Amino acid sequence: MRDIDIKNSNLLLKYLDYRGIVTDLLCTNQDINKLAREEIYNLLEYPPDEQLGDLALPCFKLSKILRKAPHVIAQELQESLPASPYLEPPKATGPYLNFRFNPERLAKEVLVSILVNREGYGARPPKGQKIVIDFSAPNIAKPFHVGHLSSTVIGNSLYKIFSFLGYDCVGINHLGDWGTQFGKLITAYKKWGSQSAVEEGLIKELMRLYVKFHEEAEKEPALEEEAREWFNRIENGDQEALALWKWFKEISLEEFQKVYDLLEIKFDSMAGESFYNDQLPAVVEELKAKGLLKESEGALIVDLEQYEMPPCLILKKDGSSLYATRDIAAALYRKRTYDFTKALYVTGIAQSLHFRQWFKVIELMGYEWAKDLVHVPFGWVNLEGEKLSTRKGKVVLLEELLKTAIQKTLEIINEKNPNLENKEEVARVVGVGAVVFGALSVNRIKDVTFSWEEALNFDGETGPYLQYTHARACSILRKVAFEPEEHLDFDPKVLTDQAALKVIKTLYLFPERIMAAAAEYEPSLISRYLIDLAQEFNRFYHDCPVLVEEQTLQKARLVLVYAVKTTLAVGLSLLGIKAPERM
Ligand code: ARG
């Protein structure tokens, strides 16, 4: 086995890739070589039943090309492929050719890679490409509610994932700071509000006014007209209207900042919808010049009937702009300013049509980069079964949600580990982690129902469970003052227990799983992965004592503990969750 010299290491930011190894092996076969390498690579799959093997080549597709039955191909390959030090001899099972990793080699390569790369395990070198991520984007003068939680935490996680993979990310908070809701709010303020009430109640008072407006407008539709007029005045630069708008925006921003501070989330740009105001006329001109604008009942639209979509509204009858107009302007601005390779938009699934429409408009404008605009939608967030809606006032403020989580965590710590140092800080990190993990634990398109009991269960499939497993691994390593560089000479041969092998195989999968999470814009692939890893590790820890007499065995098992601890911490950080060393 090759000895590893880290000083001159070719292991930094490079990872064992069994799909690549098996592909190379298969390419030595003249028949299979007819396929492109990438095609073979993509054919390989992880068998659902691990009894069969670690990686499999299904021979169905080859069967068409080689004009032989799949099971014949599998059999022939079994007999003819050259041996590899990384693999056991392959086995044909029906139409599949199954490969098994050489366990010793696997253990050595994966664990040394983690000892060497440490918190960089799974990272990739810089790519020199930009990815713009539009996320969070709460609406000013409306509360930051649990529905915005998904956008905020998914976007933040994608930001971390893509940065880890070597992209330069630009996080943009496209604040909803323009639009008819300001007309509504000013109308309500004028009718039922006062300066002192707003100064005192802040966002809660703004929310009360907003809800009140909708209640009253149901009875008295003329209010809608009044709201439209106020918004018009804002758009036309009316002093009074603008001053109120600015005031409401400041109050909201201060509120939002409290949430971002709790979550420790930062943005590279806070350019909200209003930022594009002075760029709108140019957009309208360009659309006109390109022959895309049509008049319809006094409004200006881009007709999308040909693409089986309702028209994209650009300017209303009264000349005011729309959400889509501002998104088009923002996209043009971002392409000019950042020259992105991709621009992601993280919002609720209810906005899918909106994005499909204006992405199409960009395409019709002749911009080939329209293909690089990606909507990343997510499902509804329910709290104890209730759908969240600002209009009816049935909202739980995100700040309250986070503070409750922190408070509940503190109670649990006081019960389980009252002498813990830094209790408040740990409670914050764990409480927030519980909420964030809750929002990232299922496929983003699925609806999430948030439940306290589930989110804070230290034994369930939760953030605190992962953090607790990490802290437990830290405590083992602390007992021996573990140093990674002193353990590079561990003996992988002694890691023969089933539970240990299973953990190592899962550790091996981490770099690949991060790539998949990026390719699918799906942080939950990492959350699921971490739960598997933690459960397997806890099984290992239960079956295999680590601090044993026998020094060779102890050393190797400690390396495994370190590898799990490190991978859990990296994985959690990619979700935007901190991993405290003590809990
Ligand atoms: N403010 C919008 C909302 O709360 C989300 C904005 C998303 N970003 C965008 N560029 N449209 O629904």
Give a structural overview.
This protein has 583 residues and is α/β, with parallel strands linked by helices. It has 3 domains: 18-101, Gyrase A, domain 2; 130-289 and 319-387, HUPs (Rossmann fold, 3-Layer(aba) Sandwich); 398-574, Orthogonal Bundle (Isoleucyl-tRNA Synthetase, Domain 1). Helices cover 53% and strands 9% of the residues. The strands form 4 sheets. The protein has a 4-stranded parallel β-sheet, sandwiched between helices. It has a 3-stranded antiparallel β-sheet with strand order 1-3-2. Strands 6-7-8 form a 3-stranded antiparallel β-sheet. Helix 17 (463-479) packs across helix 19 (524-543). The longest helix has 25 residues, at 195-219. The radius of gyration is 28 Å and the shape is globular. The model has no long low-confidence stretch (mean pLDDT 93). The site of arginine (ARG) has 9 residues, from strand 9.
List the keywords.
Isoleucyl-tRNA Synthetase, Domain 1; four-stranded parallel beta sheet; 583 residues; 3 domains; binds arginine; Gyrase A, domain 2; alpha/beta
Describe the structure in brief.
This protein is α/β, with parallel strands linked by helices and 583 residues long.
Rg (C-alpha, Å): 28 Å
pLDDT < 50 runs, ≥5 residues: none
The structural domain count equals 3
Shape: globular
Q: Which molecules are bound besides the chains?
A: arginine
Number of helices: 20
Task: Please tally the β strands and state the result.
Answer: 13
Distance between the termini: 40 Å
